[in-house]
Each structure stands twice: as structure tokens, then as C-alpha cells.
Batch of 2 targets.
Target 1
Amino acid sequence: VLEEDHVLVLDVYDFPHRVVVHRVGSWGINIFAVQSTSIINNQIGQQLLASLTIFALVVLVTVVVGIYFGFTLARPLIKITNATAVIAKGDLSVNTDQLEINRQDEYGDLSFSFVKMIQTLTEIIDKVKYSSVQVAASANQVASTSEEVNALSEEIAATVQQITHASSRQSEYA
């Protein structure tokens, strides 16, 4: 009586066969199956080929999906990096519409902050330009006032000299 499955391989006149004996339940019934080993080897080869094909397809799909997600994740970062290079050269005329990334992740946060930084820098530069114009106007006004004061000083000096000259003449006549 068999207690478990047994596999026997028999070579009968150069025609190898595989005999499988299965015990069914506790009733003592045994089932015998005979298969040619060449058929079994052929089936194993087909299964191996199918497994390798599926593995190759899985690898191909994984690579394609990886490349797609790689470009999807890298594209916003490349845009911001290119804009940073332009700004580093002193050009704040970057088109911020292209930098706005409508995503609810770190890339979206980075894009929002970057656009805000460009706007803030532009406002600061505009204020500095306005202040420099005001300083230039004030400097011109100070220069003209200084010229007026200088002219008045020369007038006063001339008047004092005339008074001194007139006074010394009166002293001579007196």
C-alpha cells in the first residue's frame, strides 16, 4: 500500500515512459498514469519558453514605465533648473507661466515658491530703480542749491568788500 505519491521512470526498449502513482484518499485506490518523457520534456520546454517570454515582457513594461515616470518627474525640475540658470545671469524676464506646475506635491510647492521669488525680486529691483531716480533727483537739487549758495556767498563777499572799501574811504576823509 502506497502512503504518498511515487514517480517511476521506466526505459522500455528505448521508449522512456514516466509512471506516476497517486494514492486517492484512505480507500486504498491507486491511480496510474503513463506519459512519454519526450512529451513531458516538450511540455517543460514550452512552459520554460512561456515563462521567459512573460519575464521579458514584464522587464520591458517595467523599463518603459520607469522611463515614463522618470521623464514625468524630471520635466518640471528641468524647467525650474533652466529658469534658474537664466536668472543667475541677471535676467529676470523668465516666463513664469511656463514654470507654474499645477501639482499638489513638492514640485508644485517648488514651482509656486520659485515664481513668487521671481516676482519679489522684480519688485525689489523696481523699488531700487525708483529710489535711485529719487536719489539722483535729490543730488541734482542739492547741487543746484549749492551753486545758489555759492553765488550768494560770492555776492555777500563782494558786498562786504564794497562796504569795507567804502568805510576805509570815509575814514580817509574824516
Target 2
Amino acid sequence: PPARARSQRLATAVLKPVQLLTPRLVLRPATARDIETLQPSWPDSNLNGWLARNNDQSAGLWLIALAGSLHDVGCVALRPSVMAAPLCERAGDPIEPLVALRPEHRGHGYAQEALKAVLWHAQSASAGRSFVAVCDVPNIAGDRLLRRLGFAPGYEADAGRWRVRQYRMPSALY
């Protein structure tokens, strides 16, 4: 099905925007206003471009804040897979996660904690959906993160500047 139809099904049938709590983080659903303020201030131009293209197609976008803080340190999103699905056999309508943290908040395990909470939420709300991911091959930290979360590496393909590797998660992990 067309990506827009898949994203509308995913957004309405799979996830309800709810606040998620972890031991160290608060993940709150992003609003249109949040996206407008996040885009110009975000230092990562790739994320900024993704937000501009996908803010209406996301299956869920959460802002990440440290517990007890009002300041966002990043965001985590789920969306219908665009890059990974064509690389996966029998992918169906898979969900693809995205996580981005401000540089000063990387290396503390926040990405893993946030993704784990969002994947658990999506798994419990979307029985039978598969999860796939894509990571640039040179991104060693991203590869390690996906493997720690239970994603298994799969095919590699050329995608512009870098080769990318697709990952697939067994559906019963979370």
C-alpha cells in the first residue's frame, strides 16, 4: 500500500499517544507546536529534515526529557518503514524506530532506555507487527544499540554516501 495509507493505518490503529515513563526518562507525545519549535533548534540536520518530511506520517513521536527536568534532550519516533521494508523479505507493514539525542546527552544509555519503552508500547498495542531498522554501516554505536535491543542484522545496500544495514526484530521480544 502507499506509504501515506500505511502511516494513517499505523497511527490510528496501532498507537495511542500516551506519556511513557522509564526509571530515568519521561517520554511525552510531541505536539505540532513541539515539532515547530524542535526543527529550527535541532543541531542534527538529518533529523531536522526527517521531522519536516514526516511530522504528519509518524506513528508516534515522543520528546525525551530526563525525569525531573523540563528540558527535552532528544526524541524517539516510530514510523512506517521506508528504507528497511524494501530490504526485508516478508516485512508486511513494519514499524521503524528513530531516536536522536542532543550530542551532550549521548553515551548515557538514554537512547536504549527510550527505544525500549517505545518498542514495548508499540508491541503491546500492535500484536503481530514487525519491527525493522536501518543504520549506516559506519555507525558502530547505532549498530550496537540495535543489537542490544534485540534487532538482528540483515542485508546491506548502498544508500548514498554510506552503505546501510537493515535489522529485523523478532516480534515476541517486548
